[in-house]
Amino acid sequence: MFAEERQQLIAGLVAESGRASVTDLAERFRITTETVRRDLAALESAGSLRRVHGGAVAADRFSTTEESILVRTVQKQPEKLRIAEAALAFVPEGPSGSILMDAGSTTEALADLLALRMSDPSSARAVAEGNELVVITNAIPIAGKLAGEPGIALQILGGRVRGLTQAAVGQSTVEAAQRIRPDIAFIGTNGIHAAFGLSTPDPEEAAAKAAFVQSAHRIVVLADSSKLDTETLVQFASLKDLDTLITNSEPSPELAAALTEAGVEVVIA
Asked: Is there a single domain that holds both residue 48 and residue 102?
């Protein structure tokens, strides 16, 4: 295979998945890591990708890049639905208990499934008010999906609403999160990395997520494969803060080792 042909394939792989590691590319194309690095350098010079430690990311993928919730909702829908279905198994079956749902497209998918489960007329989960599953969220779309659903006592954490993510953020959101202790928090993330942990581009959203992680008894992270091995601007949790990661593909060897060391259960949906 000519170098130009290989480089075109590498550029396509990075564009499709968002990132690629030097070691994975070396194994895939049966070349040395030094050759991979030369290819990545050439592709970066051509503007086809951006080199990072251990590999490369898409050219438009920066630590502050953040798409709107409306855009993210239609991306990777089958993968996010599988992740949400796996996450639903963690929600208490009975009416008692409390969960916190962070803002995000995958947690929105979980909210849709939860609404269907709770409104099923053949299910014993539709119970009288006062004996309900408490659902706490800072996400306007999630609140809209779950408001009025039988068997759910909905609580909204207030604050300034970010238009991009439709999530309440700010000091009031953080303080409200510090006063609660839900059984489980379902957390979204823009990146999960072996060394950097969980991160998101916006400082205020990071502060809210950090408060959520500290508030709940159990932390379940929902992250599709595009978030794996990714770092964005602001860290809000370390891997040791997590209990479970639900994703749609096997983590890279480096991330898998870090998750194992941190004692994180990994569920592949």
From this structure: no
The SS3 of residue 171 is helix
Query: Distance (Å, rounded) from C-alpha 188 to C-alpha 186?
Result: 7
Map tokens 């299910």 to a residue: 123
Same-domain pairing of 18 and 108: no
Distance CA 85, CA 79 (A): 10
> Tens digit of pLDDT for each residue in 117-158?
887 765 554 454 557 899 999 999 999 999 988 889 999 998
DSSP state of 197: E
Domain harbouring 13, CATH code = 1.10.10.10
Average pLDDT, the chain: 87
Please name every residue paired with 20 in a beta bridge, in sequence order, or none if there are none. 56
Query: Is residue 64 in a domain?
Result: no
Over pLDDT 70: what percentage of the chain? Answer: 89
Mean pLDDT of 38-44: 90
Its domain, for residue 26, covers: 3-58
Phi-psi region of 62 (alpha: psi -120 to 50; beta: other; left: phi over 0): beta
Q: Is the pTM of this model over 0.90?
A: no
CA distances from 27 to 2, 20, 30, 36, 64 (A): 17, 12, 5, 10, 31
CATH number at residue 170: 3.40.50.1360
